[in-house]
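Exercise: predict the fold of this chain.
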Amino acid sequence: MSLTDNKLAILESSYGQLVDGRAAKLYTLRNANGLLAKITNYGAILTELHVPDNTGKLDDIVLGRASLNDYEAGHPYFGAIVGRVAGRISRAQFKLNQQIYRLPANNGSNCLHGGPQGFDRQLWDARSFELDGQPYLELSYIDPDGSNGFPGNLKCRVCYSLSDTNELRIAYWAQCDQACPLNLTNHSYFNLNGHQAGPITDHQIQLFADHRACAATDGTLLGKKVPVEHRLNDFRQAIRIGSLQALDTRNADTHYFLPAGRTAEPTAAAKITAPISGRVLEAWTTEPGLQFYAGLHLNETTGGKNKNHAEYPALSGFCLETQDYPDAVNQPELGHNILLPGQTFESTTCFRFSTTEAIDIQGSSQKLP
């Protein structure tokens, strides 16, 4: 079935069965320029994203598993929607309305990305629809009161679309019948040279942030906001990832505060360029911050569990997790992630793709005809 303006409808296909027998689906989105995104309703995972380089060659630029069962067996949040709270809640607990809530500690003493049965491990309901000639994939999930220790019945929707301007848009919506912390994001790992192209050290990173959060070596947030530092984590001007002397929780597994704060419309947050392929990724968001992660702890190098039998050692991909300060429920002066009854949470993040001139391995420019 085709839609108007030569757009293709979102195509639905089988993606296999979970261990409990439930069937998962895979949805394929295309635009008029050949870009292609594949999303499964298991974990709302972006499993593939094919984007042209500046010769027009398409490559899949997101890291991922080979199959549904490989995702279900466990993975480092490849492409998933994570929640209820992306990032670490320190000491796996928080106090809200005079009540202490204790969460499962799945990352040392902290609760990471919503806990062991977070949104990334749920089977979402799915529907596709068209609005103003644009096809959308809407995934919805109801997280029950007490799930992973969080209060309230939370209704959540995530909507994916792929425009003819080469923009992958992710829109979030949520409501809850009790006050609860909420901090949703997409956890895709990108490699703009292709998902199995090796390290991202050639990529040039630009983050439009002048402050970052302090964290311990294990990633635990310390409740402190400090200015970025030259040659360490000041990325307001583009810098090659591989030129940094150290990559750690001060710069490459780090929450950055965006100066505009939370906005009604998406504003520029980051720009990443891969000189060899010429691919450019811009992240725009309504969120007040982002977590930049350079895949420091990736070690997905054994067996055939990854797509195309790819190996993903450390620094094989980067994440741009647009979000609020993860531990704001314990450090409210650094963010606000409490959703109250009667309120509606809405947020949008856009990943915009383009190309620039190619650079050969020796570093000389190659103008394309």
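Check your answer against the key: The longest strand covers residues 345-355.
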